[in-house]
Amino acid sequence: MIICLCRAVSDREIRSLVDSGARSMAEVREACGIGECCGKCARQARELIVERVGTMVANELSRAAA
Ligand code: FES
User: Fold this and answer.
1) What confidence tens digit (pLDDT) does each residue in 21-35 have?
2) Rounded CA separation 37/21 (Å)
3) What range defines the domain where residue 44 resides?
4) Number of domains within the chain
5) pLDDT of residue 66 exceeding 90
6) How far, in Å, CA of 10 to CA of 2, rounded?
7) Which residue of 2, 28, 40, 46 sits with most ligand 1 atoms within 8 Å of its CB, as the best mutation to test the pocket?
């Protein structure tokens, strides 16, 4: 699904950037330009970043507890 219409950035690309080490909207923006035009995508992009980072942390904790 396209999240940023201005830069044609998808949810998949945002998740991939987080998987590659991006941990903030600023880092994702720097990598793909999301939110630099009209900014309407910013809230949804931030939610995706937080969700992905949260999943990664939960997975780390599960592995550490195992
Ligand atoms: S929709 Fe992302 S900057 Fe416009």
Assistant:
1) 999 999 999 999 999
2) 24
3) 2-65
4) 1
5) no
6) 4
7) 40
The model's pTM: 0.90
Nearest CA to ligand 1 atom 4: 38
| Ligand 1 atom nearest 38 alpha carbon | 4
Whether 53 lines ligand 1, by a CB cut-off of 6 Å, is: no
Residue 32: CATH number of its domain: 1.10.10.1100
Residue owning tokens 């998949």: 12
pLDDT tens for each residue of 8-61: 999 999 999 999 999 999 999 999 999 999 999 999 999 999 999 999 999 999
Neighbours of 29 (CB within 10 A): 19
Ligand 1 geometric centre to CA of 4 (Å): 5
